[in-house]
């Protein structure tokens, strides 16, 4: 609440408390003042009798005076029932105006002495200041009206001299000053007494509140240690908050990653209404609802919110069906490391919430957050320990630790690997005894070297119930300057299966090496011994055709043509197979290769088909890559050659370009040829796969398989995008690697 300074240094909040504190005393004081006026009016009756005797004028004045006394008695009765200052000030003000107006009227119609007039105004002024506390403007207006009225009566009736009028003004002025100063001093004294009592009361209340808050914090912290679940912890947190603020119910909510609210704990009174909660195993909290209304304001602004009339609050969005009614609301954000993670809210304090209630919840809020963080950390620790135990079992990897006092502890999996029962006191001697006799000396020397600062990483055999197993041990060790072990943490992995696999792989590698040698020998035979007789057959058939062509009939000539053509195709097929087999065996290490130079060499090789088909070749600026240059020429030769060979009725147009992305160069060879059905795209890069007959387009069906093998040797990919009758685009990639890391044939 924003306060402002009022009279005597009281804030607005203190002013309200002062009024509440002094109302009964002020009512009694006003009653005494009214009684004094009643005595004064009674004395006026006696004075009227002396002045007029038992005349008609006296009777009328007596009736008027008695009526004023009765009105004053009723005022005293009414004041005894007042409960707030608003009605008090109103009733006293009306009574004072009636009294002043009545006396002025009576005094104006009477021919009394000057002394009576001065006495009436002096007493009236003093009583007006006395019976209207803390309303100095009202006091001054009424007292001034009475004073001016009496002066006018005196002047009009008695017509006093200047000296006498000056004396009257001094007397009336002194009456006002004395009455005002007396009233001000009285209220100042009462305010000082109030402040002393109020400060003492506030101090006691603050001490009591702090004590209650501290007890609540200690209770939450104890529950964080002893509770089994978050639900139990949340119930205690809400109980503490409700006790501190005298609330009927409350809830604790947490924001999820999407900014929605999960009500992780609701007090018992809130859980009695289940229609708005998620129905799962009975009455459970609501999950994933959008924070809005009063809750949304707390979370959005990150500040406490007090609403003692929630339904009329600007941010109120109404209550869903089944929600308990709200008569008052207090919400406080929960923060963790400067970030809003949720909120705590309490509701339905019968007297409404104050700033003190808000501060109490703010004080316990950090403890609530820390308590939940601790509880979740404990849960994660339990889960991680269980996961670690399971992971060690799955990975057949155990762990061990040597503490500062030299105690050696093994995990459950380590005991299982060594075949030593869990709970057996572990010693270095027991460990050495489990090692295979042939490896004990090696392990002992390795351990001694580790104590001198060398790494401890060793593979050795152990004996488990007479069975030989292989293990790998690694450790991080802390040793002082004198070589004394301070602590160590190590792992033990059962690598028996790995060793068996390595042995099997070693045998397979040797078999593959022999197979590769045999394949190399076959390639040599195919390239020399097989091609030589084939070449002789083709050559002699060609000679026979040329020399005896005129003496042979058409059928014989056709047979010779088929034999020569078949021999030529056989030779081409053998050549292509040799090229395919040599991609790996005769490939070179990568060197910086300018791809524009590769394309230029390719176009020189394909000069004849380019000229025969009047092909248009467009080449963009290409990068320099790390590659086997001769194999890149093979790739381009096959792709560009196919683009020219499989042209349509139009003049062949080929475009060679490149883009980059994801750490690789993406080359493309695009043509305007006959294209292909993408359903057959998977067959293109397989051996001997053709989409057209040999009579339509010549070839062995090995070229694109060679392209695929070369590209994959360079750790790249190759694919095609096409549509029948609309050309095709072949893509292949080459990684962007430097000369130190690029190793062809060893792709990751």
Contiguous low-pLDDT stretches (5 residues minimum) are: 1-7, 274-285, 739-743
The oligomeric state of the chains shown is: single chain
Question: What radius of gyration results from the CA coordinates?
Answer: 54 Å
Q: How many distinct helices?
A: 19
Total number of domains: 5
**Major beta sheet, specifics?**
5 strands, antiparallel
- Secondary-structure class: alpha+beta
Number of strands: 17
Estimate percent helicity: 55-70%
Mean pLDDT: 76
Distance separating the two termini:
67 Å
Beta percentage is 15-25%
Strand order of the largest sheet: 2-1-5-4-3
**What is the overall shape?**
elongated
Tell me about this structure.
The protein has 748 residues and is of the alpha+beta class. It has 5 domains: 7-199, no CATH class; 228-381, Beta-Lactamase (2-Layer Sandwich), CATH 3.30.450; 396-493, PAS domain (Beta-Lactamase, 2-Layer Sandwich); 502-567, no CATH class; 589-735, Heat Shock Protein 90, CATH 3.30.565. Helices cover 57% and strands 16% of the residues. Strand 14 and strand 15 (664-671) form a beta hairpin. Helix 4 (114-131) runs parallel beside helix 6, helix 5 (136-158) runs antiparallel to helix 6 and helix 7 (230-245) packs antiparallel against helix 10. The chain is elongated, with a radius of gyration of 54 Å. The model is unreliable at 1-7, 274-285 and 739-743 (pLDDT under 50).
């Amino acid at each position: 609440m924003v306060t402002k300074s009022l009279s005597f240094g009281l804030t607005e909040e203190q002013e309200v408390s002062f009024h509440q504190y002094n109302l009964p005393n002020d009512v009694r004081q006003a009653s005494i003042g009214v009684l004094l006026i009643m005595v004064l009016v009674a004395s006026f009756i006696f004075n009227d009798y002396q002045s007029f005797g038992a005349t008609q004028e006296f009777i009328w004045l007596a009736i008027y005076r008695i009526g004023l006394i009765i009105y004053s008695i009723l005022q005293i009765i009414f004041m005894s029932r007042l409960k707030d200052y608003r009605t008090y000030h109103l009733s006293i003000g009306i009574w004072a105006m009636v009294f002043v107006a009545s006396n002025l009227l009576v005094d104006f119609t009477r021919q009394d002495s000057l002394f009576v007039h001065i006495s009436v105004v002096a007493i009236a002024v003093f009583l007006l200041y006395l019976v209207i506390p803390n309303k100095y403007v009202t006091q001054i207006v009424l007292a001034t009206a009475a004073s001016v009225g009496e002066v006018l009566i005196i002047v009009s009736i008695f017509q006093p001299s200047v000296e006498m009028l000056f004396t009257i003004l001094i007397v009336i002025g002194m009456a006002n000053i004395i009455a005002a100063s007396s009233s001000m001093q009285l209220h100042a004294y009462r305010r000082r007494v109030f402040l002393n009592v109020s400060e003492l009361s506030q101090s006691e209340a603050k001490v009591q509140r702090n004590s209650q808050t501290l007890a609540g914090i200690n209770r939450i912290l104890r529950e964080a240690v002893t509770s089994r679940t978050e639900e139990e912890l949340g119930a205690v947190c809400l109980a503490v908050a409700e006790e501190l603020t005298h609330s009927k119910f409350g809830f604790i909510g947490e924001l999820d990653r999407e900014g929605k609210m999960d009500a992780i704990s609701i007090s018992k009174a809130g859980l009695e209404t289940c229609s708005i909660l998620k129905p799962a195993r009975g009455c459970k909290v609501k999950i994933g609802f959008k924070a809005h209304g009063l809750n949304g304001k707390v979370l959005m602004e990150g500040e406490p919110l007090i609403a003692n009339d929630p339904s009329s609050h600007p941010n109120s969005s109404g209550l869903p069906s089944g929600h308990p009614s709200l008569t008052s609301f207090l919400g406080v954000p929960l923060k963790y490391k400067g970030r809003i993670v949720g909120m705590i809210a309490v509701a339905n304090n019968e007297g409404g919430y104050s700033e003190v209630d808000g501060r109490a919840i703010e004080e316990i809020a950090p403890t609530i957050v820390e308590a939940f963080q601790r509880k979740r950390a404990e849960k994660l620790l339990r889960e991680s320990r269980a996961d670690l135990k399971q992971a060690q079992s799955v990975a057949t990897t155990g762990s061990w630790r040597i503490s500062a006092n030299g105690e050696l502890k093994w995990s459950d999996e380590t005991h299982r690997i060594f075949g030593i029962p869990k709970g057996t006191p572990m010693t270095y001697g027991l460990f050495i005894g489990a090692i295979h006799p042939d490896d004990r000396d090696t392990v002992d020397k390795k351990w001694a070297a580790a104590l001198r600062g060398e790494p401890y990483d060793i593979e050795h055999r152990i004996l488990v119930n007479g069975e030989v197993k292989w293990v790998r041990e690694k450790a991080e060790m802390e040793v002082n300057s004198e070589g004394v072990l301070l602590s160590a943490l190590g792992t033990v992995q059962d690598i028996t299966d790995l060793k068996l696999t390595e042995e099997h792989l070693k045998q397979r590698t040797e078999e593959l090496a022999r197979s590769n040698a045999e394949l190399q020998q076959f390639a040599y035979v195919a390239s020399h011994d097989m091609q030589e007789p084939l070449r002789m057959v083709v050559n002699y058939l060609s000679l026979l055709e040329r020399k005896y062509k005129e003496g042979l009939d058409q059928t014989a000539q056709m047979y010779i043509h088929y034999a020569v053509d078949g021999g030529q195709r056989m030779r081409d097929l053998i050549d292509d197979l040799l090229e395919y087999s040599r991609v790996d065996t005769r490939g070179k290490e990568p060197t910086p290769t300018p791809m524009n130079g590769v394309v230029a060499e390719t176009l020189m090789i394909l000069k004849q088909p380019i000229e025969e088909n009047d092909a248009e070749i467009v080449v963009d600026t290409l990068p320099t890559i790390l590659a086997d240059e001769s194999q890149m020429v093979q790739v381009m030769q096959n792709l560009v050659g196919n683009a020219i060979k499989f042209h349509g009725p139009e003049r062949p147009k080929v475009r060679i370009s490149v883009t980059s992305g994801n750490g690789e160069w993406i080359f493309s060879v695009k043509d305007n040829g006959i294209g292909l059905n993408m359903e057959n795209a998977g067959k293109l890069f397989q051996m001997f796969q053709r989409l057209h007959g040999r009579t339509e387009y010549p070839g062995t069906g090995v070229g694109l398989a060679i392209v695929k093998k070369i590209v994959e040797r360079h750790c790249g990919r190759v694919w095609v995008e096409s549509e029948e009758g609309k050309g095709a685009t072949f893509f292949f990639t080459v990684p962007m690697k430097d000369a130190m890391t690029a190793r062809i044939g060893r792709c990751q």
